[in-house]
Write a structure and sequence with these properties.
It contains 14 helices and 12 strands. It has helices spanning 6-9, 38-44, 67-70, 93-99, 116-128, 138-144, 150-153, 164-171, 175-180, 182-190, 228-240, 247-267, 275-280, 282-291, and strands at residues 2-3, 27-31, 57-63, 78-82, 84-85, 88-89, 105-108, 133-135, 158-160, 196-200, 205-208, 213-216.
Length: 292
């Protein structure tokens, strides 16, 4: 498997036409948040993640009961609320259809918590939509409880972004074996499904669809902090607003997040970094990729 380099992804971050408008770069959505974890989705969608990665518009889709706590943190994004009960989304086909209207891609799971209706929402999206879907955090925990055959039946291009413990839950592979043979098991898992790209996080991140793959050796100790995974998901769905949903695009998102983190740590230090520091360095990271 090839190690990804800046020159491999330079074309993704090419200079844009002066006559472009926001519609050229895609409307994307992020579904997440609940009464216990409203903060996680705030960070992933502060516009400094998906929008910094280059999409045109971000739609933040949250339970209506946390609207007042999330709204003050939203700047350039749009907001869509789903009816909720006890701070968790209630499944409604009509509301999900409206929430996903015109979207080029969606990420789901950040700060989503646990709720029976989460399975209904995720199942409905995978069964009825035809867009790239990034599944992370509580989205992965929800998927772990579901029949994995849905990953072969869906029309969606599914991007799974687990760390090793989450990978154990969705794959059934032993945790120690994952740590000992991450590349082999990542390829083995992805190969089972028609429309899955796996991004297995680690010191070396592995991105594969079972047939082709990349090793991403970017990132730093300062990124071992709450919210870094949310930042990555925001970057991925941002790129999917205007890029093909393939292995190279997802690897590029991982590379961009890792490089931005390294730049933040260089300016600050490995102890004091916050996930938002990585977001602030996304523009500098894109410049560095362009100039390689």
């Amino acid at each position: 498997m090839k190690e990804l380099k800046s020159e491999d992804i330079k074309s993704i971050f090419h200079k844009r036409d002066e006559n472009s408008n926001k519609g050229n770069f895609g409307y994307v959505g992020i579904i997440g948040g609940c009464i216990e974890y409203s903060g996680a989705v705030k960070l992933a969608n502060l516009s400094c993640s998906s929008l910094r990665a280059g999409c045109g518009v971000v739609r933040v889709i949250i339970p209506e009961e946390i609207e007042n706590s999330v709204m003050p943190y939203l700047l350039e994004q749009t907001l869509f609320t789903i009816k909720s009960e006890k701070g968790h989304m209630i499944f409604s086909k009509e509301e999900i259809d409206k929430a996903l209207e015109k979207l080029k891609a969606v990420a789901i799971g950040m700060g989503w918590g646990e709720c029976p209706d989460n399975e209904k929402i995720l199942s409905y999206i995978l069964e009825t939509k035809d867009i790239p879907v990034v599944i992370d955090a509580d989205g992965l925990n929800t998927l772990a409880k579901m029949d994995k055959n849905i990953l072969n039946e869906t029309k969606c291009k599914v991007i799974l972004t687990p760390h090793p413990k989450e990978f154990e839950r969705i794959s059934g592979y032993d945790f120690k074996k994952i740590l000992d043979n991450p590349e082999e098991l990542a390829v083995k898992f992805a190969k089972q499904f028609n429309n899955v790209i796996l991004l297995l996080k680690g010191h070396t991140t592995i991105v594969t669809n079972g047939e082709e793959g990349y090793l991403v050796k970017r990132g730093c100790a300062g990124m071992a902090t709450a919210g870094s995974g949310d930042v990555l998901s925001g970057i991925l769905v941002g790129l999917l607003g205007y890029s093909e949903p393939n292995v190279l695009t997802i690897a590029a998102g991982s590379y961009l997040a890792g490089l931005a983190g390294e730049l933040a740590q260089k300016e600050l230090n490995d102890i004091s970094m916050k996930a938002s520091d990585t977001i602030e360095k996304i523009p500098e990271a894109i410049n560095e990729i362009r100039n390689k």
